[in-house]
Amino acid sequence: xxxxxxxxxxxxxxxxxxxxxxxxxxxxxxxxxxxxxxxxxxxxxxxxxxxxxxxxxxxxxxxxxxxxxxxxxxxxxxxxxxxxxxxxxxxxxxxxxxxxxxxxxxxxxxxxxxxxxxxxxxxxxxxxxxxxxxxxxxxxxxxxxxxxxxxxxxxxxxxxxxxxxxxxxxxxxxxxxxxxxxxxxxxxxxxxxxxxxxxxxxxxxxxxxxxxxxxxxxxxxxxxxxxxxxxxxxxxxxxxxxxxxxxxxxxxxxxxxxxxxxxxxxxxxx
Length: 270
What we know:
10 helices
């Protein structure tokens, strides 16, 4: 089995897992959200595969709702982060002065402590889904911007770019019509690889109280509540949501790596 076929199989499995989470959360409806005090703190079993919490909510259904919520937050945050990174990379291609400005801003953002920046932005915006999205988007773009900027500089020296400039095309026209399409594969791979970081940071911010509201079915909220229940022997409240979050992150990592292999002929042939 060559590298391309293997990458396609891995990508299909990862997409199936991610899509299955979104579909399952829709199928479960309000199961895992509504309280059922007659089924409080049940251990994993036939009726509730992953057990229930202190309000009788099914852990499996609630975890799926939390992952679906993380998918929505992560998609918006990663998308905004990619757009910022692409804008900074294209800015560096306008002129030497703009390149210096873009490089300085990118290096300044990379020099800032990552977690501290997330906390400060989320706290300043008052928490909630919007604050988490903005915090993740603002803090995650610099590394991708540096890669895209290097690609812009390399592509700008290509013969067809020099020909377009010799024919009188403006820098803005060349950036928009020639260089930006060339960046599309890197942007897509960057989006997929940034997705798990966005999901993990959303869960982390929510876990320490700076993220999503406690009333929402978020994985971070579930893990935070579970910390007060583990001492009573209710291990399933933390283990199963944590494992499902890990599986989702690994699925996105696998999908991004597979897509990178498919878009890189050297890696796909291995």
